[in-house]
Protein 1
Amino acid sequence: PRRLRRARRARARALRDTLGTARTAAPALRRRYSKLCDVADFADPAFRARAAELRPDLDLDWAFDRKTWEFTMLALLLEERGLLDGRARMLSVGAGREAILFWLAPRIGRLVAVDIYGRGEFAGSEAPAAMLDDAASLSPYPDLSTERLEVRNMDARSLDFGDASFDCVFSLSSIEHFGAPGDIRRAAAEIGRVLRPGGIAYVVSELQLRAARPPRRALQAAARAASGGRLSRREVFTETALERDVIEASGLELLQPLDTTMSEASFDNLAVRRFGRLHTRSGRFHPHIVLRVRGETFTSVGLALGRRLEPGRPARATAT
């Protein structure tokens, strides 16, 4: 056991070295985007201003949550990269009916949203068939045009687009639901394939902060074995799995080292799922940053990824 513990620590150190050495695929970013969701991010004035624009329904003096964090980080990254100029071609993978789609559409050249709409476990909520027929009716911003938003029914593991079709590809809290590790690797590879050289991808998923205790882990392993693999779906990544199944599988490069530090304040309103319901220390949903489900503690993690611009290649994606 002692030898195994030493081997695990050595592997963890090697992984941190890998994640901490980002090979730059573009000029350095001013803000940290490859990081964990943190309540401290909401104290930044620029972050807070953009969050207020995206979520006017929330009181940002206290109502912090992971979804608002995802939207805001993506919007700030696109702004910093100069992609909110009315020309960029973007793809949202596992798009659902996310509010960010409707906010982005009038600010870029074309936005394609793909999901298995009307099918699967999220058909009745996050990915309704109505997105295919009347997406505008689902927009939380009735004054914004959806003319540049195209919604398509498509499996993330097999994207029906040519290579290097988009200036930006993003996927927000979806890739962990795409199936077993092999399915996730296929989807990550597709994200990398359709991104143009010089383009950026922003992938948000869920990262384990603390594993379940050994007895619970043993029960979970037994359940997966008894299910014949049906319970092998990935929903929360370890750092090792995130590196292997998303970053490496995409063929893209981190634009900056991944920061896995968090403020202690982010844990103050820990949400624990019991019997299908979330319970918090305060009794309120917000702030909603860290969760514990089946003994596993986790939060959102953002990955800013890119592909190097090759000499002689156009700086923008060509039409498909």
Protein 2
Amino acid sequence: ITGLFDTKNIGTTKTVQIAGVTKGGGDAGNYVITQPTATADITAKTLTVTGITAANKIYDGTTTATVTANNPAFVGVESGDTVTIDTSSITGEFSSATVGAGKTVQIAGVTKGGSDSGNYVITQPTATAEILSASAGLSWSTPAAVAYGTPLGAAQLNATASVQGLFTYTPAAGAVLAVGTHILNVTFTPANPAYDADSTSVSITVTRKNLTVSGVTAATRTYDATDSATVSFAQSSLVGIVGNDLVQFDDSAATAAFADKSVGIDRTVQVTGLTLTGVAASSYTITQPTATASILPKTLTVTGITATGKTYDASRTATVTANNPAFVGVESGDTVTIDTSSITGLFDTKNIGTTKTVQIAGVTKGGGD
């Protein structure tokens, strides 16, 4: 016997026409046979898919996968059937978001078409791909130069990353570097192992530290037509030395001067010529110090003025005469003129006497100095 379903298409309790039942026996000729029927199901055939691959990717915290169809095809389509494959909407998902090799990617969105497609079901395919560890985004800008004696701190050791983790610096925070150019290194260990550990370096310049001098004193003096000044370093010291560095100042070639020769109170005196000595001197520079002192006016005396004797007149008035009057004590090169046009004289008393003192008044001065 044989059987034929009513159609080739899937269905339940489908009619099956049976053929091939025959008869025999001495009376068989008196009978005809109605070939029987039965019912049975045709279930859909499962198709598998080839030609779809998944790409490796850098860890991004998601399970999304990039999948590509390269000549995709169904495996299992019966000869003569028309079943087409459509991969235009396929997607892929890794089994987890964690880093790993040979990870399963479940593909979805493969669909079928064609006149016989209803007789098939699709097993959505899988592929394998790798999730690679991601860059931690380590970055470090070159820090600004620092003066010798500045401990390394947050202003210099300030690398950044795009994820949380541990920064390990060499040299470490608090280190004091010598004058010159140095390389700073950092190693970054991400808290999440899905990110790559990384390291980088930058350079930093350490400049010489400037020292100042305290305790310098200058002497007040009388005007002498120069700007020279006298200073003392007896109570002076350097300010700003790092730790126990051995460095001193040398004043053997030091000079000092006012800004100009003019008279004034509490004028600035600028010191020059101080130098540094000692084994650590090369790590420092020095700011030439200043002090304050006064230049007091110089006292001039006058010559060339005489007084004339007189007969008692009950007054102290005296007659005075300028004969080539001049100042005594003007510094060489200074321009100081004398004016006696308004001079007057007074005896010390109105009483008679010989070689009496006459006080002269009204002598004035002029000129550039």
Protein 3
Amino acid sequence: MRASGEMRMKLGIHRAPWPVILLVAGLLCPTELSVYIGDLRLPPYRIVLLILLPIAVTRMVTRNDIRVHAFDVALIAYNVWTLAVFMSHGTQLIGPNATPSDGLVYGGSLVLEGTAGYLVARVWIRDITQFRAAVQLLFVSVVFAFLVSLPDMLFGQHFVHDLMQSLTGYAHPRNTENRLGLTRAYGTFDHPIHLGTFCASVLALVWFGTTHGTSRWRKAGLVLAATFTALSSAPLLVFAVQSSLIGWDRATRGVAGRAVMTLVGVMALYVVASMVMTQSPMAFIATGLTLDGWTGYYRLLIWENGLDNVWANPWTGLGLADWERPLWMVSGSIDAFWLVIAIRAGIPAFVLLVLALGLLMRAVVRRGSRSKDRQIRGFALGWIIAVIALALAGCTVHYWNALYVYFFFVMGFAGWIADPKRARAGIMITLPQRLTRPSWQTTPWQPAASLQFRGAG
């Protein structure tokens, strides 16, 4: 039974919806393959989104088995607010060489990536078979990323980007960084940290989507190996967080009220750590649990100065204007997804996105935990763990370009659990059952199962 389940898992990629396959393939394409229309850059994944968005919207509003929920509305509101903010800033806060259309172009790109990335998963992954196939597709993508990035790490050269640069003439900004005597790999991604985060994020989904113990550990090992090629602390923490939550789930299975117990335990641990440590727990994690302590410390400074910018511009943020910070902080990079949202688009954008994610997680937990199908409960838990890890990583990693799309794509992944398919209305005809036992029947008589005919609905 388990073997047949594993075989279906291995051969089930063909059951993944074609738009999902197309988008994942687009996310794995290097940025050098971008198409330019004037000053507008269209990387492969953005071309895919432009094609799929109108189809996805049509399916969302016309299909009877998909209902619009509060989490959908909150996510759309986040994207509408983001577009409105950047359009309102116009050229004032984008730069001295900006044109009036720049706010629309930049904000429109974010709306396309956030809305379409979410809807592709939301409207095309609608049952457990499609979900399982999509998870397997992500695992195969991680294996592909590992095979591409391993030579980068071992030989100190970005082979894919170098090849694409020689073919297209576009030079994507890259740095050759060494850690632990190895080179940080890019693979096909825009940055090593994006490579690592993408690979690490699938651990929980793959773990709960695999039934055989040996296969689980083998796949987890491949995910870890792919994550390691980035030589980045944040992706390794994403992997560690998921591993810890998977272990905690196994240790507390069957314990009543374990969710409350977990929250209380985490808060108590934080309080005790704050009392006995010379630095805050967050500072310890940022500087002590990183491959490069200086980058962790710099991220703390980004948060401290970034929050000052948020409080100074709480409603509509700064747009693309440079944020205020000490002169010695030369780089304007903000390595924190959640902080970037608050700085660029204001606190309302941050609240709307957190609200959408919270409502979606609540719906998945409620419906997933009540499901009679053990696999659905497992997939719901795996998705929750993956999203928690991605959300935590967003405190130290900025999701941009392909990884920005991927974050919203993962959000929509569990839409089928939060909004399951409704049974189609049909015409049911039940034939009358015999009410008396035939005289020749010697065993206790039971009526035969009634025959049912369902209309096409």
Protein 4
Amino acid sequence: MSLLTHHNYPIEIKMKNTFFIILKVFIESCAMHYREVERGKKISSRLKSILSLLIVCVASFWVISCSQEPKETPGESKNSAEQVENQNNGRSHLSISEWASCELPEFHKKFTEKYPDKPPQFTFHATDEERYAQVKEGGGFDLIHPCSQFFRFYAEGRLLQPLDTSRIKHWGDLSPALVEAGKFNGKQYFLPYDWGYESLLVRSDKVDKIPESWGDLWDQRYAGHIALIDAADANHIVTSMALGLDPWTTTPGQHIEIRHKLTKIKPNVLAYWSNFEEIKEMVASGDIWVAANVWNDAYASLKEEGVPVKYITPKEGRLGWMCGYAIPRKAEHVDMAYDYLNALLDPDSQAAFGNMYAYGVSSSAALARMDQEKVKMMQLDDTNLKERTIFYKGWTVDQRKGINERWNLIREAKK
């Protein structure tokens, strides 16, 4: 261990001074006795004694320096203390697996007020597949924010600890239907937080006829101006609904039918999209007339900017997604995790989240504090939500593997 890893500087300086005094004496004695040797004399016992003393002092110097406990001195940076804490007790900050844009400080204000010197550390994942793989391998997270189609994998894989809902202040304000989606085998593993739609976004000034069905994506009048989301499960569901099939119970024979149907849409497709900014730019430019599986935020943002768009509900129903927070089984900072969950569910903070992205929120108290014009525009208070919206369900491992494999083949096929 290097001396530079310690900070007990006065002791080090004294020890170094003693060391160099002894070294100086030794060198001078060596020089004197070398001259004596040149004259034919033998090395005296005094030189041997000094050499022995030097060896003992050097050994003592290193033993003492390595055994010194680090002590903070005036002026030492706070980072040094944090590094020591991280080395001795693990990391000191809350670690969260998050979606980009969900980490803004206004969404967890009360956590920041309680821990001003310990801001959360975020790891952003672009897909649920990435997040699940990392958590399964150990992850190192105190909180994760997956979506409902992956809830089952986490719960049945015993990767989570059940939530103690008595520690969550605003639990009673949550939607019972959303709460139920986070429960497995009688235990609550997920805190529902955000939800929204996936539907058809249309440039109303570019088309003669507004689409009414997911099946209209195959209509030749939109050829070369369709954008599909680059997500295997979404395209499996949309194509299944266009064929009149139940997406969650498809058979091997129906998989062939779905694959052929998806292959036929390729001449209509101009682009595949994967994030908010991408699809927003495509639609705003006028290149894309009909975009599939678009989220609330893109529609609200384009509408606010004056782009002529419509967000329709297909006759088969719009898709719905819901995401929530969970505490991994190996979380290091469970108390801080509950503090963060309470900060998220603070009605004003969750309302700020809903207003920012025009998303649905899980808390009735937060919904009441949102911009009510935005609530009406996005139908976030729709009492017939379940009848008009088909929420994602979980897949089995084999189902997801097959869906991904079929989508990759279709994605790579030529038009």
